[in-house]
Design goal:
CATH class: Alpha Beta
Largest sheet: 9 strands, mixed
Radius of gyration: 16 Å
Number of domains: 1
Oligomer: single chain
Helix content: 25-40%
């Protein structure tokens, strides 16, 4: 398994994020942590150097989360790709429980994007609430986004079949990928009903700054490709 952490100027929360990835309770020799620095100008690079020999670090010019994820996927060796946002925290048994959940599912991993529930924390790491996903049918994506990208687990065959994240998008790359996978390629979004991350809400978060401003454009593009 490959845990990919895309980061841009993430010095504030990056150590906690990396530590949470390295401290997984299972697969101690069967997972890798890849940090892709998307042109940071803060102390991100120096922080990553503290983990030399324990993580794989790649620097690239700034291009957005999608481009950073794509670099990580390109260098990943794992059969599964685990996206982890640099301000989030992976729970200690997350990998173990997700793999168990995949094994207990009737879905074909090569045609499925798995996602989970998550705890919401604030900028200080204090608990705010639980987000329990209802396990929507894929058609609900036309009305609203679901399946937090930082909880996702994706078999590498999915990328072989449908391609990478859209590098032309400055944000909302997860929504475009989910729609493209389900509506153009007949793939499934499968809820594993467990908690795997502490998802951090804070003022500098891209979601809070931008929200879903590209959602309508993305939906129009996908519908256009459906013919």
């Amino acid at each position: 398994m490959s845990i990919i952490i895309p980061v841009f100027n993430g010095e504030k929360y990056l150590r906690e994020c990396i530590n949470s990835a390295l401290d997984q309770t299972l697969y101690s020799h069967n997972f890798e942590v890849i940090v892709v620095d998307d042109g940071s100008t803060d102390q991100t690079a120096n922080i990553c150097m503290e983990y030399e020999g324990r993580i794989k670090y790649y620097y690239k010019e700034n291009g957005g989360t999608a481009t950073a994820l794509n670099v990580g996927i390109h260098f990943a060796n794992g059969l599964y790709i685990k996206w982890l946002s640099a301000d989030d925290v992976l729970l200690g048994n997350a990998l173990q429980k997700m793999i168990e959940g995949v094994g207990n599912s009737n879905a074909d991993p090569a045609n499925t994007i798995y996602y989970t529930n998550y705890h919401v924390i604030d900028k200080n790491g204090d608990f705010l609430r639980d987000l329990v996903e209802p396990g929507h049918d894929e058609s609900v994506l036309w009305q609203k986004f679901f399946g937090n990208g930082s909880t996702s687990l994706i078999h590498r065959d999915v990328f072989e079949k449908i391609g990478s994240f859209d590098s032309g998008l400055p944000h909302s790359e997860d929504y475009e990928f989910w729609l493209r996978a389900t509506q153009l390629h007949g793939m499934k979004l499968e809820l594993i009903p467990i908690f795997t991350i502490n998802y951090r809400e804070h003022p500098d978060q891209l979601t809070n700054k931008i929200g879903g401003k590209l959602d309508n454009v993305i939906k129009k593009t996908i519908r256009g490709k459906m013919g």
